[in-house]
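Objective 1b. Sequence-to-structure analysis of Glycine zipper 2TM domain protein.
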Amino acid sequence: MNASLIRTALIATTLVFATAGTANAAGCLKGAVVGGVAGHYAGHHAVVGAVGGCMVGRHLAKQHAQEQAQQQAAQRQAAQAQ
């Protein structure tokens, strides 16, 4: 693997971890672990897989949090209507 590609992936990973809030950190960490393992077995691209997995994990965690917030808002509206 090219050294500049590894360096770029490490910088991207550092930036993602630095900007990750506590709400998104779990999704990022879980995604990075899964992506790293998958990348390793898919041709020794663990770093690239970890970066991609982190991004996907954060996206899914954010989506899940938004869905939960919408459900709670709907439950509050239903309780107020009764």
